[in-house]
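Appendix B. Raw example, untouched.
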Amino acid sequence: MPVVTKKVSFQTKGEVDIIDITKKVNQVIKETKLKEGNGIATIFCPGATGAITTIEYEPGLLEDLPNTLEKIVPKNAYYKHHEMWHDGNGHSHVRASIMGPSLTVPFNEKRLILGTWQQVVFVELDVKPRNRQIIVQIIGE
């Protein structure tokens, strides 16, 4: 089976910026030369302060997710990471570790197989805007 690796770049606005990357990933799959258009795509974020997940990309959940992260991993709690780098993003690393840096999604006819209300999103967890580059690795036929 062929393996195709592509990169998708974008800018984030900073902490808990949630970006719908579904169309970008579908475009990468569509541009491959896979004959059948079936397989799996792994979407991976290099770095320790970003996460990839799925969500229903609607205003309520775009507020609920950051609010829930604040309850689970509060920004203003004490983190030993701050002693090492003094960059104020210990909570960002913990949140990213909990959420995870990657997601694997099957695709058919060169399109991700997702639920009706499900989108693939990147969640910026660092405390400042970042230039991000996501890796999409496609295995298919």
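End of appendix B.
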